[in-house]
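[job 4471] stage=fold_predict status=RUNNING
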Amino acid sequence: MVLDEAGRVQANLDARNTVRQSTDPLLKKTQGIDLHHHLSEDKYVETYRNTDLRPGHGKSLIYSQKIEDPDLHAALGTLCLCFDFEDEMAGIFKDLNQGNPQIIVAILDADGTVMCASNVNVLPPAKKNNVDLDADFRFLTFNGRTYLASMVATDGHQGFYGLTWYAMAMIDIEVAFKTQRSGDFLDKALVSKLQEFSGELSSIKHASEELLDDMKLDSINGRVKATKFQNKTFVEVLQYVKWIGEEIDDLFNAAIQNLQETIVTSLFNDVQFRAFQGNNIADRNLYERANDVCWWALTPMFRRLLTQHQSQPLSDAERQALTANLQYINNPNFRRC
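[job 4471] inference complete, writing structure tokens
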């Protein structure tokens, strides 16, 4: 929507929003920004809270930009881009649930309050959580159930970090640590290749095999001597020693195989999720690049110079100015609002 300097709505893309006047402080804050002070500074205001710009919608995510006179640099009004935050997050949560529907994902504000979550029954809006970014994992209890949780800050995207928000993912420990067979999709030859990069598992396996070989050798030598002295009881004892050694070896093999299958499954899940992320990021970047024309409209330079081009050719200085502006718009590090 477009508002004049006094906060009166002059244009509104959302026909369902009947607001005509706004007194939100973000308008004054946005109009007070010096758009010509420094190119590296943000020239817009990002807001997430209740606002009279969207009555009845609760907290809204709004990016506001000053509209000014190109010659006098005086504020003429404000351009507000209002995002449907809940609908956007619902789509993201739906995609994430395709990976593992048992994992609950949530967005927290700077105070650790839940802004939105994939499961509102477990994490309802406005629920408060302690922000802890140092621990890789921690245990949280909700409604009598214990969850394994992890909380992280954003890595940013193309230099844009936005407001201070955090992401939290958690899973019920009964599900997280439930023993499950990974299935027949794991190729045994592939699992065996884990020995090439899992030195600790390989050393345990070799030590187990050496121990079993020693026990077998001792058992054989003992039985030979026991037979020589006709001690049948000792022969039976040695037979049990051999059997115990084989049982221990089987236990080691089963434990190592389970660890190997867990590692392979984890790697597959990680690759799958990264492929999903890469696809979404590529789609988002292509969408932004396809809509860069809207950023050209933020400056009157193109309209003014190209209009003059109808009667006279562009000078070298004008071409350089257009080129520099286009490079700025298409720069991947340019923080779009």
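[job 4471] summary: The beta strands are 2-4, 9-11, 44-50, 59-68, 75-83, 104-108, 114-117, 138-142, 145-153, 166-172.
[job 4471] exit 0
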